[in-house]
Amino acid sequence: MGGHKEQDVARQGFDVADAAPLLLDPQGVVAGWTARAERLLGYTASEAVGRKLAELLTAEAAERVPELVERCRVDGGWAGLLTARHRDGRPVGVIVRVTPTVEPKGRTSLLVLLSEPAGASGGALSRTVLEQMVAGSPIGIAIVDTNLRFVWSNTALEQFGGGSAEQRLGLRFADVQPGLDAEAVEARMRHVLRTGEPVVGYEHVGRVRSAPLHETAHMLSFTRLDDERGRPVGVYYTVVDITDRHRARQRLALLDRAGEHIGRSLDIMRTAQELADVAVPGLADVVTVDLLETVLGGAELPPGPLAETDTVALRRAGQKASQGELPQTVVEIGGVAGYLAGSPPVRCLTTGRSWRQDELTPLALEWAVGTAGDRENTFLELGLQSVMIVPIRARGVTLGVTTFFRRHRRQPFDQDDTHLAEELVSRAALCVDNARRYTRERDAALVLQRSLLPRRLPEQDAVEVSACYRPADELTGLGGDWYDLIPLSGARVALVVGEVPGHGIDAAAAMGRLRTAVLTLAALDLPPEEVLAHLDDLVARSAGDEGSPGEAEGTYGQSVGSGCVYVVYDPVDGRCTMAAAGHPAPAVVTPDGAVTFVELPQGPALGVGGPPFESVELTLAEGTTLALHTDGLLAREDEAQAAAGTEQERLRAALEERFPTLEGRCRAVVDALAPARPYDDVALLMARTKRLAAGQVAVWDLPADPAVVAEARRTVVRQLTQWGLEELVFTTELVVSELVTNAIRYATGPVRLRLIRERALVCEVFDGGATAPHLRHPRAMDEGGRGLLLVSQLAQRWGTRFVADGKIIWAEQSLSGPAE
């Protein structure tokens, strides 16, 4: 009984802060001596090393040495009270703690720690102060020997689990903290023992046995303890709980990841999925994102929470599970997620406030309705334990809800988790709302695009045509480039390609106005250079009227600097006339596949002023292909690196490729020269020329004699009969009679009559006059003036165009029935 009492006193009074360590070999001979041992007993290292421990004790204490050696062998250590003999001969009572150790070479030694009992003279105050500091410190402190077994620890270390200081004695780190990565911790202890280099600020994350659901983080520091000869005797280490700091870093990292990964596109569904992807597994095990159907459609929503109804239907826009597997009853992406009235998701929608339940009722049914499966599942069957629901709100508008679940193996959600989820969802909500607004604007832009660009090119017999348009603006899918094919009188067509600087709705609106202006000018049957001249005047004048420099530009202000190429092709004789305003010249692909580029004089861009526009005229063989394009087709991001002529060579190589269809060739050229997201808008219009057969055109030169009118009528009747157009004989006779009569009566020089049978019957009368005829409305008693009025009533279209040596009055009649 006395021995046990002695050991209890030794354990209670032992002061490691003031202990004097020394080392004994297996025979009890002092092998290592320290300065503290010298201060305690008075012997120097040279006097103590080599002497048996029994020689340093009183005779009574020396008799107990064999006993304590045996106890160390059996029990793995010994602690008790002994009386030592000071160098000056006086007895000194000491507390002794003996622990077996193994040196690096495998030799067994005894580590002896000597300490004066509390209250001993000369050191009571320092030990008391140090004991208070160690005992009251929130930092866990421990000492392990060279076998990494605990020889001492303070009370604060107990808060990290692993039992009391007495329970730790002789155990290793893995024995007291099995839930942590003991191998990594002990590896650092061995590194410190081997090198002597301290390890400061090592962070260790794991789950301790006392709180298996709670992830903890600790900061550990390790320092080697050496004897007077510099030999390692153990490791002194400290532990600080940094779980709160670790969780704060995790939250910041999660929010930083959210800022990086959420909202990378303006697609609503993708943004919702990005929210779910970011939250798993850092915040939750299962996340679902449900949005109102009106949000997915981009509709404008009323501000404030929603009104509660019997059942609220949302669309599943995103979902994610940490293990990659969702419950079998989960709604598919894009499917309807219905929630019962009064359920937590509906309450979050109607109140606009978050909701959390730390522990779900295991046997309660889920709130959703209409999910897959024959019956509803309980939360226990779904493996869900804790839940948070956060409404998705942005700019005062409720867009949907995000639901976060944790499974049983994790700690339930707490208030900090709710704050983090709200911050995460609020950031995503702005991205979702931006995507919703973009969807609305994009739909409006697409409607504008459909109204501005031709849905399909008009049918005609002059050219076979194909077009390809690829915008650079990925936000609206709309730019300022356009193309057009415009049927003209006399079976001719106009081919137009142009571009407005910039992208987006403003550029598209400016393009729409320019395209409308070109259509209007084309109806006047003006030569290409005059069309561009009128268009240039319109842009310059309108831009000046819209405001002074520095003010917001209107659509015509946006048009300044636009480019355009205007081409007129006549399938009767193959003549082609073209002019350009700050725009690339067309490429010409001959029937044998050779590619050339028209030497077209470049006029100034529209609205900027400069020299007059010039046109060139050339004759194209049947089967020749014209390629009109905007400069975006050949644009490069670094124009300075593009050598002169390189772009044309790239286009030449692409056009030389053979394809069975013109549409396939057009698409292939754009794919070869422009990436999927081009640097600039790209428009390409390709037209393969045709020729009207000789039998489709009939021409007669008529003398300027009024008597020739009757002969002209008879000639026309014979020609229409030959063409099988007897049903048009009556109206055509009247039209020819009026037009020839007017030409002979009011014009000078020769008169020429021409009939063209294409998709319409065209009647043309040429004369040398320079004055344009005018449609009049004669009074009832007038003897004349009804000719053109009659022509306008009988023909589908009619008009006048001027040529180099006179004018042509023409009228068209449909061959497919009356005009609608």
Descriptive report:
The protein is α+β, with helices and mostly antiparallel strands. 32% of the residues lie in helices and 28% in strands. The protein contains 23 helices and 33 strands. Strands 14-16-17-11-12-13-15 form a seven-stranded antiparallel sheet, sandwiched between helices. Strands 19, 20, 21, 22, 25 and 26 form a six-stranded mixed sheet that branches. Strands 2-1-5-4-3 form a five-stranded antiparallel sheet. A hairpin with a 5-residue loop joins β1 and β2.
How much helical structure, as a percent, in the residues?
A: 25-40%
Report the principal-axis shape: elongated
Calculate Rg over CA atoms: 49 Å
The poorly predicted ranges are: 9-13, 120-125, 371-375, 548-552, 639-644, 779-785
How is the largest sheet built, in terms of strand order?
Answer: 14-16-17-11-12-13-15
Number of strands: 33
State the oligomer: single chain
Let me know the largest β-sheet: 7 strands, antiparallel
Report the average pLDDT across residues: 81
Structural class: alpha+beta
Termini separation comes to: 123 Å
Classify the beta-strand content into a percent band: 25-35%
Count of helical regions: 23
